[in-house]
Amino acid sequence: MKTKRILSTIFSILLILSLSGCAAAAPIAGAMVLAPETGYAAATPTPTAPPEESTVETSAETEMIPLKDAAATLDPPDVFEDFYELTLIPRPSHHEEQVRDFLVQFGQELGLETVVDEVGNVIIRKPASPGMEDLHGVILQAHMDMVPQKTPDSTHDFLTDPIDAYVDGEWIVADRTTLGADDGIGVAIAMAILQSDNPALGPIEALFTVNEEDGMDGALGLKPGILQGDTLINLDSEDEGVFTIGSAGGNYIDIDASYDGVEMTEGMTAYAVTVSGLQGGHSGMDINKGRGHATKLLVRLLRPTAAEFGVRLAQIAGGDAANAITREATALVVVPDDQVDAFLQYVQAYEGIVQSELAAVEPGLIVTAEASQSEPAKVMDAETQRLLVDALYATPQGVLRMSNAVPGLVETSTNMGIVNVADGEITVTYLVRSSVDTAVDDVNEMIASVWDMAGIDVAYSGRYSGWNPNPDSPILLLMEDVYEEMYGVQPEVTAVHAGLECGTISATYSGMDVISIGPTLRDVHTPNERLQIDTVKKLNDFLLETLQRIPAKEG
User: Which domain holds residue 354?
Assistant: First the structure.
């Protein structure tokens, strides 16, 4: 059985590498799963029906218990109590100071060697149990930051407020915000291992990185030689029982430009035009689900309005995270008084069109135009408005290429995550992903060419490496055996169309043995994010058993 599993995994990986590079896809929607019995990569079909509603939205059917009251009753309690402590600490990307201080204090209070490196990563080292010093050193890795997303009616301040977390049946959820289980639960699991008094563990390092979600600064800034272990277990995957051994690379595209506004003429009325009610989602794991993108829908609406109704643009705001599919976008426009009725009829008709187009995946989509209480002092001149709206409308969004080798496998995508236009300033951020490095370069040039026609330059940042699968990985083979022994089923082995720090870290530490695992999360990077409680125990028990079976170094 073990030989068949190894051979089939090798066949699937080599097939993918030979035809499409390090292929990547989400394991739930359109995932590439390495099928151990057939030796072929089986694709989980992408659902065409709307995803099931979030537990947050159906919580009336179950009792919502504050995580503060429930944490100690959940199993394993140390993991959930640590996770609860993390929900109290504001930690959006680029603002990890408080959680870093918390982890430093945590390590020091355990009497463990605790290091903060140049970029702010925290490394805590737990020495081997007596007699276990010769085992391979294991690094447990998770990121400190979280994606800050909330519903329009939420007043949550991610820089100051704790996450309001609840147990809702079999899930942990948050009140109208992201939960931060991506990757707070990974941090909590690593903390619990550091706290463990298990007498049969080799040397353990916990690596807690900064700003994974918006640039991978922690992984990119990690210096050679600071890590002592040779096996890295990343705790940032989102499906229990799925082992990730490959991921996409990518980079950010940034547009920063300015323009001169013109005075608003008389006889105009200001309106706020909003596209909302979309599901959003992770721009890697959910990019192939066919969901609407609020900013793209908004600029589609706006494009003909200047010529048809004399509409002038003052502001656009859509999205606040490059790696989240935009759920809501708003434009502040001014409309000639004699065109208001026609414009409002156009907006209403447009709403019906896009609702019909996206009914299967976006049942909550609405498009509104409401009179604004404040009129803008200035608007864009007509030519700047045309160039900007055309550039936003013309740039690609979503899946650009699927794997030729494996149906359902995303190879290349792009996401327009942030658009802010106001007061003479234009800011746009894209996140490009691909398992093929040259495809990233191609998309970069594609987007740059669009903005070049608008006379605006682009800049590239945060390039990170893809992670090539290794079917001969010793930690993979060990974990496959342990999982099957514990649970009687074989785990799935896959690659994801998302950026994991594994690729960047293994590029710095060549020869490091790397794998990614995690409990089950759903709808990450959205206010519907939720963590399945029972999968945490299953993952934690499995991880502890694996750590107890880490072999000694040869020689």
Answer: 252-464
